Amino acid sequence: MPAETVLSLITKSAAFFEEKGIDEAKRSAEYLLAHAMGQKRLQLYLRFDQPVADDELARFRELVRRRLKHEPVQYLVGTTEFYGMEFAVSPAVLIPRPETEHLVEAIIDRVRDERLPRTARILDIGTGSGIIAITLAAQLPEVQVTGIDISSAGLDLARENAARNKVDGRLSLLSHDILLPQLDGVGAPFDIVVSNPPYIAQSEIETLQPEVRAYEPVAALTDGGDGLAFYRRMAALLPRLLVPGGMLGVEIGFGQASEVTAIFAGAGLGDIEIIKDYSGIERVVLGRLITA
Length: 292
Description:
Blueprint: H1 6-19, H2 25-36, H3 54-67, H4 73-77, E1 79-82, E2 85-88, H5 100-112, E3 121-125, H6 131-139, E4 144-149, H7 152-164, E5 171-175, E6 190-195, H8 210-213, H9 218-221, H10 229-241, E7 242-251, H11 257-265, E8 269-276, E9 282-289
Parallel strand pairs: 3-4, 3-6, 4-5, 6-7
Antiparallel strand pairs: 1-2, 7-9, 8-9
């Protein structure tokens, strides 16, 4: 029996995934095979005729078995890309989404065109794997960034990612629960505060894709209520979190723009902007702390 090649395995596996209702069937097959062979996905395109060794085939089949249970590809291979950078991920942290790049780009643009200080001090609330904090530090070489999270496993990954992307010298990572009354030790106030908080309502969790509801950390998805708890808490802390004129930028869920802007406007945030994602969904709320 002839040995399986890279191309034959991708073709068969993609068709199998498609038949079983697995999202992004071809990309899943490619990423898993590349991981099993210890290669980058794009390298496979140069090696379509290469036979796959028995040990590589065994690793690949195990990955396919797990993917058929809807385990996310990012967790299976242990890394993902965000803003052109590579990050380690695990089931301890939320998988980065392209939509979050809109929040990152908004802050980068406003620092580069000097609407925000080039030497800004930035706080990332709920940093998780560190994607927002690390990307801002990498793209804005004069800023200092602090990331806070309640997950020790998440903070460990963020430290790994900071070192991987060579920004650990300008990034502080702290264990802190923003929902607790005290704010001691965080270093507030900041010039910029950013966050992609848990914003999915508890009532909506069962409607999510199985890859999300069964594998991603629930605490990073929902506040256990209406999905607005973290926005309310940040609003209550605005005068302590931000310097006068400082900027808050948050990612929001589908249909939350009016409620979130009302929460922040009522707490003194002005010059509020709403940014839409690639699908035309209102995804980011920005504003400045207005003082009398």
